[in-house]
Amino acid sequence: MDLREARLVALEVIEVLAPACDRVEIAGSVRRGKAEPKDVEIVYIPRMVEERVNLFDVAEVPATEGVIAELVREGWWEFDAKVRRNGPRYKRMVRRGVVVELFRAERGNWGYLFALRTGPGDFNRMWATHGWGGGTLPVEVRLKDGWVWAGGERVVVETEEAFFDIVGIPCWEPGERSGARLGRWKLGFE
């Protein structure tokens, strides 16, 4: 598919999810402006709503769950039959023949997940690998379970810029990110 078509699908998805979200953004190759993206990636923070779970108990649940279920029932989109993903943090949908991947974040890990889901993969592998393995990740930082950890403590990372500061690399524009560029920067040539 071409970038224009992918952007249209991404904007449709954002439009229907936005009322159930505190934040929702396009990520992946569409955000990077790749000419022919293979899929659409969306990162979102759901608005939490109270829902009765039984006669006596109420629980907070993501408002997006109800929206997604309703859109599936209506046939607006469907779960991907080839790669089945329908977990609480990652869903893989198909809208008008286009694969749409939904990644759920929280305020405290938004910056990390948004950077991760923007990519590209070679860039991510380099910043997610410690220096002794050829990457740029500082020795005191760990990336685990969707969160950034330092000194054994979970670190709040609300912005992409804050994430790149923690891992010690520049926050280049999405379309300017690559493993090759990060490698040149690491060697002092950038």
The count of domains is 2
CATH topology-level name of the largest domain:
Beta Polymerase, domain 2
Structural class determined from secondary elements: alpha+beta
| CATH level 4 superfamily of the largest domain | Beta Polymerase, domain 2
Roughly how much helix do the residues carry, as a percent range? 25-40%
Count of DSSP H/I helices:
7
* Percentage of residues in strands: 25-35%
Beta strand count: 10
Low-pLDDT stretches are: none
CATH architecture identity of the largest domain:
2-Layer Sandwich
Q: Which whole number gives the mean pLDDT?
A: 95
What does this entry look like structurally?
- It is a single chain.
- By secondary structure, the protein is an alpha+beta fold.
- It has two domains: 3-104, Beta Polymerase, domain 2; 108-186, Beta Polymerase, domain 3 (2-Layer Sandwich).
- 33% of the residues lie in helices and 26% in strands.
- The protein contains seven helices and ten strands.
- The protein has helices at 3-17, 28-32, 63-73, 110-118, 121-127, 160-167, 179-186, and strands spanning 21-27, 40-46, 48-52, 58-62, 78-79, 90-95, 98-104, 141-144, 147-150, 153-155.
- The strands form three sheets. It has a five-stranded mixed β-sheet, with helices on both faces. Strands 8-9-10 form a three-stranded antiparallel β-sheet, with helices on one face.
- A hairpin with a 2-residue loop joins β8 and β9 (147-150).
- α4 packs across α6 (160-167) and α5 runs parallel beside α7 (179-186).
- The longest helix has 15 residues, at 3-17.
- The model has no long low-confidence stretch (mean pLDDT 95).
